[in-house]
Amino acid sequence: MTDHLQRPGTPFETKVKSDSSRFERNQTAVADLVAQVRNEASAIQQGGGEKAIESQHKKGRLTARERIALLIDPGTEFFELGLYVAWGMYEEWGGAPSAGVVTGLARVHGRLVMLIVNDATVKAGAFFPMTAKKVIRAQNIAIENHIPTIYLVDSAGVFLPLQEDVFPDTDDFGRVFRNNAVMSAMGIPQIAAIMGMCVAGGAYLPLMCDHILMTEGSGLFLAGPALVQAAIGAKYSAEELGGAKMHSQISGTVDFREPNDESCIERIRFLVDKMGQRRQGVFDRQESKEPHFAGQEVYGIFDSDPGRQYDMREILARIVDDSQFSEYKSEYGETLLCAYARIGGFAVGIVANQKTHVQQVDHAGNKRMEFGGVIYTESAEKAARFIMDCNQNLVPLIFLHDVNGFMVGRDAEWSGIIRAGAKMVNAVSNSVVPKIAVIVGGSFGAGHYAMCGKAYDPRFVFAWPTAKYAVMSGASAANTLVEIKIKQLERGGTKLSEEDRKKLYDEVKATYDEQMDPRYGAARLWIDRIIDPAETRNAIIMALEAASLNPDVPKFSVGVLQT
Question: Which of 38, 93, 327, 352 is most buried, most CB within 10 Å of its CB?
Fold first, then answer.
């Protein structure tokens, strides 16, 4: 059985450096991945590149990131979400770095706000399909967490060559304006500043907000001069048709006319400073205490090789306050860790996959080895009960993924693995407290669902660069797909040599491995942010602070449970 029982109120005792060579090997591997992501992030943050940035400056306008830097409180950081959105996509159109819009959380006069900022250096800020989805994701985070939202608008509207994928559906362009209206009705403050072009349907976004600002030289119209001339044969200048002076003096559309970006941002900060404070969340928070161990040590603890073991408790000790956590049913269902702790002072419940193999005794008294990263019947039942307890006591939930899936085989089926798994999925599905998911390693199959994958409404989904995200591992999937392909070819009379089989396997595995990469998932908004493992604690604290802005927690009910 186990020997990890911990007295309440005592910090975790680390053992990670007992194998220094393994620690150093892991540290190097993870550090290399982190460096690669940082380098790619720097390139993405250049937007449309130097020439496009120079063109923006020649118009007397700042870039999206320059505007953000000026808007947020001095000395604070912009917590960007969706940096990798559209990564590797739209290459036939020259690409769309970060989908041409920058989103994330920031502090303005001490208040946490959501920023949605068009990047005019990327195709004039036009909306690609993923641009609309990224804006909607940011709005949905703001809606779930009651976060005041600021839009800095500088967009040419829909990217017309892809209009069929931008215009009509429930997660397309029109949903943005619907969300504006819903947020307003919910009492979530919204400020929109037109700091460039704002045309066609996109003109509705600022008009659905509480405050509208506009800089000189910007344009706000349903149809620009060229379209107006084509439609009705009339010729007007852009200023006459929809300039800042006209909308300020004649149409009365804008609340504040500003001479330049700097003045506009100063006015936004002034308005945010006057916002009242609504009732805060109901989740318990005390004074934060730093962990006893450096966050960078997780580089050496974590092992991305699925065949190797590591102790998830060592990871927790570098994330939670004072390195203290209290395990729930620590000697039962040990391949899932369930623990109470504090992170940034917030009381939290943690559900984490344990990657060490453990010996258990079944109901018949027989000893068996349970493999780390696999969810067994006992661990699923334990987690389901723990999740329900956290909901009963208004404790937010943190899920740390490194899961291969549920156990399979005769013994697992006889033990009721499907029933237990359904119970855990039910508890996750109906959970009403904030849920935050962090994918540290593998997140495969139904295990991904049970650990609160994207489909189960986590408030935020973060991933380490080491994350893998798919129905099953690359090797398993490749073997399955290759066998199917070989049988198809053989039925057609084609016999493959061993060399051809290996080539086919390598091709299939390469494609599958690419799709498992966290950047592939982040490009499609399955992941909100790829984080440095050493920054996991800070990312969770930011998410908890955002979640605490929403004081409304629905009644918890799980419906029918399979018992």
Answer: 352
| Tokens of residue 11, six digits | 């910090």
Q: For residue 221, which phi and psi values (nearest 5 degrees)?
A: -155, 150
Instruction: Work out the angle at residue 82's Cα, subtended by the Cα atoms of residues 77 and 88, and round it to the nearest 5 degrees.
Output: 130
H helices of 252-394, in order, are: 261-273, 298-301, 312-316, 377-392
Cα 29 from Cα 459, distance rounded (Å): 30
Write the CB contacts of 487 (distance below 8 Å, at least 6 apart in sequence).
none
The predicted model gives 186-204 an average pLDDT of 91
- Please give the helix or strand (H or E) that residue 192 lies within, else none: strand 190-199
Measured distance CA(293)–CA(310) in Å, rounded? 17
Distance between CA atoms of 423 and 384, rounded to whole angstroms? 6
User: Is the distance from CB of 341 to CB of 328 less than 8 angstroms?
Assistant: no
Tokens 């009492």 — which residue?
A: 187
Short-list 277, 187, 288, CA closest to 542: 288
Q: Do 443 and 405 form a contact (C-beta atoms < 8 A)? A: no
Residue 258 pLDDT exceeds 80 = yes
Using the predicted structure, report yes or no on whether residue 269 has a pLDDT greater than 70.
yes
How far apart are alpha carbons 127 and 49 in whole angstroms? 18
Q: Averaged over 226-251, what is the pLDDT?
A: 88
Q: Measured in whole angstroms, how far is the alpha carbon of residue 518 from the centre of its chain?
A: 11
Least confident of 15-19, 123-127, 146-150, 252-256: 15-19
Q: Which amino acid is at 469?
A: Y
Structure tokens at 470: 């798919």
Q: Are strands 190-199 and 219-221 parallel, antiparallel or unpaired?
A: parallel
Q: Is the pLDDT of residue 2 over 50?
A: no
Name the nearest CA neighbour of 98 among 530, 512, 462. 530
Cα–Cα distance measured from residue 540 to residue 352, given in angstroms and rounded to the nearest whole number: 14
Partners of 349 in the β-ladder: 340, 397
DSSP assignments along 413-445, one per residue: HHTTHHHHHHHHHHHHHH--S-EEEEEEEEEEH
Tokens of 189: 């403050």
From 202, 204, 192, 196, select the one nearest 255 (Cα to Cα). 192
Hunting for tokens 């048709």 — which residue is that?
A: 241
